[in-house]
Amino acid sequence: MGDGAPDTASQRQARRTTGPPSTRRRVLERLWIVGSVAYGGLRVFIADRTVKRYGVNIWAFAGVELVTSFIYGLSSARVVGALIDRRADRAVRWGVLTAASFLAPETFILLTGRRMPTLVYIVIGALLATLGTVAAVSLRRKVRAGRHRRPEPGATPVTLS
Predict the structure, then answer these.
(1) pLDDT band (50, 70, 90) for residue 155
(2) Element (H, E) at 56
(3) Are the C-beta atoms of 75 and 97 separated by less than 8 Å?
(4) Do the beta carbons of residue 107 and residue 63 sit within 8 Å?
(5) Which of 28, 81, 157, 161 is a good FRET partner for 38, with 20 to 30 A between their CA atoms?
């Protein structure tokens, strides 16, 4: 590194991943978490008006929803960052957590609801399919935009190999 010898791929990788995340990335991550938890609050309100009548304990659901909303917000933001940084190992770890936190609230409803009409199952399935597709498309766009974004003023340029 300082001896005039060319950097190895592992040295470049270490420099790229050991520094703190940019201020912009931290702010966006926090905003995404807040938005995810707020959306979770809206989902609790909707569940109270719809599936509570089928035996779903709304307070337990609120706990599951709000905790997993926070986890989803954090982990999905970290997946985006890991993919932008081309860190597949981190993306996979955060991706598993993202998927689990995405599925947990609906799984809770499906496991605790009693004698729900077929329409409820159809709506939950359609929500999972639609929101999952939207999340995947959004993830792809964010990663592409992040990889093509100009560096922040004063940032050290990073060469990705």
Answers:
(1) very low
(2) none
(3) yes
(4) no
(5) 81
